[in-house]
Amino acid sequence: MDIGSFNLHDTFVVLDPDNHATPEENNADLYTRIDARYDKFKSHQLLSAHIFTEDWANWEIHPKGDEVVLLITGEATLRLKINNTEHIFTLSKPGDYVLVPRNTWHTAEVPNQAALLFVTPGEGTQHQPV
After folding, report:
1. Which domain of life is it from (predicted)?
2. How far is Cα 89 from Cα 96, in angstroms, rounded to an integer?
């Protein structure tokens, strides 16, 4: 068990299928490292936080589960593509969140700055340019 005090922007948390939590340093090799350590993230989730100052450059999709995207500060608009229809959700006050259903392409627009918390089922995640 890893015990300590961490900052979620610097140290993410991997949640395994038994709900064991493992801190993982947020650095350049994070995603390569967690793919190797956690069997390509099969049945795992990633708890992370990011600060954005511009729109996302990509759409992403998580085929193995729903993602939670929660606003900590700022404002962000999430765009989801469901059955060829785009759905738009604006997160404008701390605590607002969007549940992104599995297999749903999504991206975000950030007018100024936004800090977002994510609970992501990472296995099989894909990206494509906006």
Report:
1. Bacteria
2. 10
**How many C-beta atoms lie closer than 10 Å to residue 107's C-beta?**
19
Query: How far apart are alpha carbons 28 and 97 in whole angstroms?
Result: 27
The residues spanned by each domain of the chain are: 11-129
Q: Are 56 and 130 in contact (CB under 8 A)?
A: yes
Residues 54/33, Cβ–Cβ less than 8 Å: no
Retrieve residue 4's tokens: 């300590």
CA-nearest of 14, 1, 2, 13 to 44 is 14
User: Which structure tokens are listed for 31?
Assistant: 């995603």
What kind of architecture, by CATH, is found in domain 11-129? Sandwich (2.60)
pLDDT tens-digit profile, the chain (130 residues): 578 899 999 999 999 999 999 999 999 999 999 999 999 999 999 999 999 999 999 999 999 999 999 999 999 999 999 999 999 999 999 999 999 999 999 999 999 999 999 999 999 999 999 9
- The owner of tokens 């995603």 is 31
Token pair recorded at residue 36: 């190797």
